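Researcher: Here's a chain I'd like modeled. Treat it as a single chain, no partners, no ligands.
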Amino acid sequence: MTSKSAAALDARTSAGGAGFIGYLTVGYPDLETSIAAGRALVDCGVDIIELGLPYSDPGMDGPVIQHTGQLALDAGTRTRHVLQAVEALADSVPVLVMTYFNPVHRYGVERFARDLASAGGAGLITPDLVPDEATNWIDAASAHDLDRVFLVAPSSTDERLARTAAACRGFVYAASTMGVTGERAAVDDTAEVLVARTRAAGAERVCVGLGVSNADHAREVGAYADGVIVGSALLRALGDGISSLRHLAVELADAAHSARIGG
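Model: Modeled as a single isolated chain. Structure tokens:
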């Protein structure tokens, strides 16, 4: 079957832009509000939603996502709540869960794939899992028609890029810079080079995250990537209320969707 996230990205790039992918931490500031925030992103034109599963050792996350994740954990957010949020949003846009792999391992890889598919989820983004060590997940995802999104970074060798591109379904997640996630004043110049290298290694679709925080960034990245991923900036806006989230999301969606028109 066709990848839900791939179809959403292809629709945007064929229309002259790039997809807008928004990340939210499930359970921040509470479960109901995080679901309402997802619905607000849909209203504002998001093409794919990433739902973050809060984790107790978020070594790759920046301060905003760490903070929201800890608040969500303290409030009792668990894997079942993430699946509940997926089910609430999956009828509107493709929904990917982004998680470190340990919670999936503890839950049971086959069970997680089954329950995610049953909830309507499109697939999983696994920032700390490399394809070489992902045989069980790849098999389970294939059995349940789920996307598999792995990460590449500027330091990735050409061999690593090729292996990752071959293992992914949906898109390859290109980390625009080395280091943890979070907002930055500018998107690293290496992002465009990384996208080109990843495509040359065989990737059909490459989306860029880490550091994208405003419309100018989204327009810049959307000119060469298939999708623009925004997380920390949206969560920071949500901290000021859903109306602030909406305002930023509209700007980001408009910039990403028009990134290649007239270019």
